[in-house]
Design goal:
The structure is a homotrimer of 462-residue chains.
Chain A: H1 12-25, E1 30-32, H2 39-44, H3 51-57, H4 60-68, H5 86-95, H6 104-116, H7 128-139, H8 146-152, E2 155-159, H9 169-176, E3 183-184, H10 190-193, H11 200-211, H12 218-234, E4 239-242, H13 254-265, H14 271-292, E5 295-298, E6 302-303, H15 308-314, E7 322-323, H16 328-331, H17 333-339, E8 347-349, H18 356-365, E9 371-373, H19 383-397, H20 415-435, H21 441-459
Parallel strand pairs in A: 1-2, 2-3, 4-5, 5-8, 8-9
Antiparallel strand pairs in A: 6-7
Chain lengths: 462, 462, 462
């Protein structure tokens, strides 16, 4: 199921180079600076649940594909606190596993099935029960507990993504424990920065209560954000993350920003004012990053909850988020004109719009000292997508304005698979440069190491 | 002129896989669910006309390229009921045949020249007359009549594209004949749905007359459309087709829709109201599809008749239609929020904007159960274009949210060539997945068969 | 440092074809119809300055990358009339040369270092001084003077880019000299056509003074432009060039154009009116091209001076120009509807937005007789960018609606390297078509020669 040459170039020369490059980096530790695992797994260290919950219910890559082919979400246990009949859901998954041919999801799953659970035949109706039973049995063993897997995976550092309202108790508990695993939070202020976020007004009030600041005033609100960033930093946080609908930034005068905030907290703001507020906040947060050194990640361009009925029935993150066109050149200019040349600032840009790679992102990152390019993201962190990222950005931005790989996942068991895919694709890209004599092989080894390990630590200040 | 390995990957391993895959599917019947052939050819079964009329005058791929290099359309017989001097036009074509190097048009033509007419040297001034005489001679033979070619091509079903005002007499006549060829109509209501269509008001009135409904009222108009769909279905129709300038859809209240229709039939509607009407009609037609089971095809994004002088002199379809950017995410949302989760509905999306493949179309089709992706279309149903379609859609939507190949052609003789190119490209793509160990070869065989034959029948309910 | 097979395909068969194709064209003369070299170099024929000035200070590809990684521009001598410590700047460059891995800049530089200066080890801190001393020494030799290099490079014709306000004294002096090198001007009227250009009003007045026309009136202004074009043509000019922010064109009535001009010269025009004036001027200039036969080049889509602080401190062309989305389909229509079918007109389109290749530019150029596609430009004249240009345009526009390569450079020493990269990429693309049997090898040889030499001379009327 897992050939040792998978994802390497087809021609013999390049394949041989890719093999040699990969051999040098496959054993490097995993640095995962951006993801959505749950700190509680590592504080509590309880066994993972049954296979259906673990691999289907928690992975929107999996259930969105099944849903697209007419499988009702209810039959997959979506929306259920506990899947009623995990084996039935698993069998349904197995019947439809052929749908994933050609997708990265299948590569990640096969990797976990084979490497972790020792399963060697592809998942199908015939093997469904054997899979289920094997996984259940293994998950019960101590070496499949979260901390043991963390160590087995060779993870050097793992960042979660956290609300400013999160007390980070599990992070505290991890640090208080004797366990040496480095799990750190990321400051993701969307719930208190995006007026369209569910419960925004209440969130802002809660932020005030948590920080003992009057967040109904602009200055109190900003102070509350600063204090919360400090609290995160004490628990190892080195980065912030911002998931806005667009890349819009603004650079209002202090008084205009204050008036806008008043309008926002009044609940009377128009759609345009809300967008302007998000835009202004990116610039305010950049100012804070200049002060406190937190690295900024901007993840724009998802149309959230596109499928209204699914959202109403099942809530967020149900596979209905769809990418949109994103304009970085005009949208980022206010922030960049204010802070783009600041020596201490790092802003990592992500995109769901691949057309921006060569047209906007690589030219911007190839000029502004504060900018770095995040890796191919979400729909695009796949073999073809990762390869396109390199093909479309390297010639203008080089390798050294990029920051290694982000797995960006809730699916903890897929982390080694995802990094492995990224490393293989990078080695294949580099092998091609070696074979057509754009790079010497010894330089390529150095670049491969930088892309797998060094650049991510440098960019995220880890 | 036609190497048996054409379009297969260059490296030896992948090429060998591609050969084996192709051997398994090359003989499968052709299913052509979307095209622009003329039912009269198969009802009348008369010989095709001279080579210039057949290959130049009727193929805008051919004459647009010649025109782009300064060949006057008049010299190619464009706009003439009957080409005055077909041999002169043919010689002019032969002189300029080098212009088609690297284009799919040349591949399709070479295939027909070689496979059908036994011509083995490339078309050039030196071979022009031999080509002309050979083709004239062969076209006169009984085995070159439309029905004989239909059978020789191995066509299982061929769909035409038809106006709701068309009495479909030729379709009736085909069904009434003893000939077994399956030629079916497609319901393309643009002439009565698009207020900018030539003669729209008259068309709506004619629709009323044909159906004995009062199409000056909203309800009568909708009933007339339903009745016409029924009439089409009785002649084998399984699908509708909608060629709108954008992908805009709307979901107005019944009364708002009724008022809008009144404004439209008054002839006083603004450009925005016309666009809104087209948008609303896509949703109305989706509602009808939910009822009667006709599969919907949406083909948006062509700027029609861009070259005004050519349009004024020669009319529509003269090579002056140019693709534009298309936004599926926002535009389709009203329709999808209304009917996107309907189990019985199938909507097949096409695009002329390749940037939408990975950003919009694959994510949408990888989530909504009603959506499927039509193949690379028009300017993009070429070797590079078909390959990009797979590279950009498979990882997010998989193979099973796609529907096989559409030849979309008026050029009947090019049908086998076009399907052959698509099959070869799919086999090459699959071969690459096999060679880099993303797919087993036996799975790839199954996928190749699905892409060539099974999926199109399933999606179009054939 | 320079392998003879560089940039050729990886598989053995295609590589062998590429080698054979390249062998046929590598010795063809260089035709450089669009660039930014300085005519003074060839009139004065003085030695080039020190290595840092030559390779760093004058090449924004180089210093933008260094700046993006935190190297202060001041340390590279940017903004200094004469670099204070060229050796220090050079060492800093050498330390950071690894940043250029995978970029075309490195390929171009390595080519010059190796082919011109005989340097064989890659630039690094260890080799920095040897590089510096070797280059200094060689630059002092007579065979490194501009005219000698022009001849050594095998340049048949070299076009500069010139303001209508330039008296073209150096061009006159070259023609008056006994030197046979063909260096010709290009008419680039942006300074007197773009109301947002620095000093626009003064420029228009100067244009009047130079031509003895009253450029405060619309008719006088147009006459002044016509007279200036004539003056350029007398010095060998065959083309104009237009670097507008968008591709917008307009087709106003004579009186509306006249009123708009009055508003523009009054200095009271709005941003929209300025954009409309640029748009109208493209159509006016097309009219002049129909009359006088100058080939029009349109280079739209750069957001100039995106980084305000750098612009304020160092001025234009400091690496802060960023591509933007460009819409050719709607924007060019007014011009094309007016002059698109004119037999005598040639308009060459360039883009910084690769998404327009297959969606807009190839369909437009594959239809309108006046249109040709300029090669991959600026950020995209790189191995991957040049290959994408062919992959995305050939199937719709063919090879013969393209015009060969433009080096578009200020870096005179990089000209042979840039043409060499373009020729190698074209041979690799053609080799692929030969290997997968889309083209015969003898046809591919002809196409390779056309792309390297014949088409550029034909399109630019050289």
């Amino acid at each position: 199921m897992l050939h040792s040459d998978r994802l390497f170039p087809a021609d013999a020369d390049s394949r041989a180079v890719a093999r040699r490059l990969y051999a040098k980096i496959k054993g490097l530790p995993i640095v995962s600076p951006h993801g959505h695992t749950d700190a509680q797994w590592f504080s509590g260290n309880q066994p993972f649940p049954d296979p259906a919950t673990l691999f289907i219910q928690r992975d929107h890559y999996v259930f969105r594909m099944l849903y697209s082919q007419g499988v009702p979400l209810e039959k997959l246990g979506i929306g259920q606190a506990r899947i009623e009949d995990p084996r039935a859901a698993w069998r349904l998954f197995a019947e439809n596993y052929y749908l994933f041919r050609g997708t990265p999801t299948r590569m990640w799953l096969n990797f976990a099935f084979h490497e972790l659970f020792g399963l060697e035949q592809i998942l199908s109706p015939a093997t469904a029960d054997r899979y289920f039973d094997t996984i259940v049995e293994k998950l019960a063993a101590p070496e499949f507990r979260p901390r043991a897997l963390f160590e087995r995976f060779g993870i050097e550092v793992l960042a979660t993504t956290d609300s400013p309202l999160d007390p980070l108790l599990h992070h505290q508990s991890i640090r208080a424990s004797r366990w040496q695993g480095r799990v750190i939070p990321t400051f993701r202020p969307d719930p208190v920065v995006d007026p369209d976020f569910d419960g925004f007004a209440k969130n802002v009030a809660t932020l005030g209560a948590l920080t003992k600041e009057d967040t109904s005033t602009w200055k109190g609100y900003l102070r509350a954000l600063r204090l919360t960033r400090e609290r995160f930093q004490k628990l190892g946080c080195t980065a912030t993350d911002h998931g806005h609908p667009t890349a819009a930034t603004a650079d209002l005068s202090a008084s205009a920003a204050e008036s806008l905030f008043a309008k926002i907290v009044s609940g009377q703001a128009s759609a345009e004012e809300k967008e302007l507020f998000r835009a202004q906040m990116l610039t305010e947060l950049a100012a804070m990053s200049v002060e406190d050194g937190l690295v900024m990640q901007i993840h724009p361009g998802a149309f959230r909850n596109h499928n209204q009925k699914i959202y109403q029935k099942f809530g967020r993150d149900m596979g209905g988020d769809i990418p949109t066109r994103t304009d970085y050149v005009h949208d980022l200019r206010p922030l960049l004109n204010r802070y783009g040349n600041e020596p201490g600032l790092t802003v990592i840009l992500f995109t769901l719009d691949e057309t921006s790679y060569s047209r906007e992102l690589a030219p911007l990152a190839g000029h502004y000292p504060c900018l770095r390019l995040g890796p191919a993201w979400w729909f695009h962190d796949s073999p073809e997508g990762l390869m396109r990222f390199r093909e479309y950005t390297t010639e203008t931005a080089g390798f050294y304005n990029t920051v290694g790989f982000n797995d960006d996942t809730r699916a903890f068991l897929s982390i080694p698979a995802r990094h492995d895919v990224a490393r293989r694709v990078d080695c294949s890209f580099l092998a091609r440069l070696v074979t057509d004599h754009r790079l010497d092989e010894e330089e390529a080894v150095e670049v491969a190491q930088d892309l797998s390990y060094r650049l991510v630590k440098q960019a995220y200040r880890l």
